[in-house]
Design goal:
Blueprint: E1 3-9, E2 13-20, E3 28-35, H1 42-54, E4 63-68, E5 72-73, E6 78-79, H2 95-102, E7 109-114, H3 115-126, E8 134-140, E9 144-150, E10 153-154, E11 171-172, E12 175-176, H4 183-194, H5 203-211, H6 215-239, E13 243-247, H7 254-267, E14 277-280, H8 287-300
Parallel strand pairs: 1-4, 4-7, 8-13, 13-14
Antiparallel strand pairs: 1-2, 2-3, 5-6, 8-9, 9-10, 11-12
Helix pairs in contact: 1-2, 3-8, 4-6, 5-6, 6-7
Length: about 300
Amino acid sequence: MTAVPVLEIGGTHVTAALVDLARPRPRAAGTVRLPLDAHAGAAALLDTVATAGRRVGAPAGSVWGVAVPGPFDYPAGVGRFRDVGKFESLNGVDVGAELTARLPARPRALAFLNDADAFALGEYHAGAAAGRRRALGITLGTGVGTSFLDAGAPVTEGPLVPPDGRAHLLSIDGRPLEDVVSRRAIRARYARLAGPRAGNPDVREIAGLARTGEAAAAATLRHCFEALGRALAPWCARFRPDVLVAGGSLTASWDLIAPPLRAGLAATGESLPAGMELRPAAQPHDAPLVGAAHWAERSAAGRPGVRL
């Protein structure tokens, strides 16, 4: 398998591409990106996803890699989006069967995986975590996604990782983590510190203000990402990753995020792995697509953990 068709389904867009795994550092080619309304009906959502897929010219009978956010029954290919504010119309829908019927040349199989796992796998195979045995991938955007990888396999249970391997289920300072660090949390904290005259800037604008020395913006980012570091520190001490790789829209401001994240990790006094590196994604846009392609290859080889 070389040219692997993939889909990345996000809260605001769907991306389709072909990934050539024969290359030493695979990249996505023929990328198609379409807007997606997470509040649309099931048929409209599935039609949009399939439209993106049809445009990449996938080989007949392919195994597709499909990255999708949770909650989702990945082995069964069924949506579990209940009371989560997105994709509610897909709750209980056999997304695998519906997409198989819509995609061209009847795919042989769809291999679903969590979008944060797809990102981490992409960076493990062709990015900032390449050559490392253990990696912690985090995605920062509307929420916080995490993936704990051991030799390229996501770890989702056991004492070394949070429940389901997902940091968004954690709390910090008595509050859910995503109430403290996420797009909405950053904007809300800045609004409290800056007051009504500051308007309603988005995170990118807040980062720009922080670079100019604006006190409220700098304090907001420092508070939020120190909290993220403190929340992750106990799990870094247990899982002992060689590298922490950050991706998602917020890492465009890595120069502002990395120092407080590093400070938060150190502040807890946890015994962190010696030499653990913090790195931004080397392939911030392609990593989830590359990771989904590797997951599809794993599925085609009959390895456990994916749907065939």
